[in-house]
Amino acid sequence: MVVDAIHLDQIREHGGLAGIRDESALEAALARPRQKRHYEPGTSIPALAAAYGFGLSRGHPYRDGNKRVSFVVMVAFLELNGWRFTATEEEVVAAMVALAAGTLDEAALAGWLASRCKKPRARGRAR
User: pTM for this one?
Assistant: First the structure.
């Protein structure tokens, strides 16, 4: 699974305990954006990315590195969907710590992501 590979890469790079703590929490976190998209058609890409981040960070499925993996998964999801994310390291750390602490909710995370993303350009013929 791609998310497990991201987690392992983060552990190798930054240290920590490898492995899944709660398989059900991981499944729930990864299902969260799909459910949101199904029940709330038209949900924005940043809001879907936030659903991944919220589920992974707050569900704490891994033994260690949950904030790191949730951030990388959010950015990967944004980039795979043509969005460009930019923020300082300090902004990212503050947001991820607040998310894990429960002082930043999913809607606020979606707004934070959207405010730091450039929307993809419309596809069409070149001018």
Answer: 0.90
Determine the residue type at 89: E
pLDDT tens, position by position, 95-112? 999 999 999 999 999 999
Chain centre to alpha carbon of residue 53 = 3
What's the CATH code, domain 2-118? 1.20.120.1870
- DSSP state string for 12-60: HHH----SBS-HHHHHHHHHHHHHHHHHSTT--HHHHHHHHHHHHHHH-
User: Which helix (H) or strand (E) element contains residue 76?
Assistant: helix 66-80
Domain ranges of the chain: 2-118
Closest CA to 4 of 73, 94, 80: 73
> By the 8 A CB rule, do 18 and 69 touch?
no
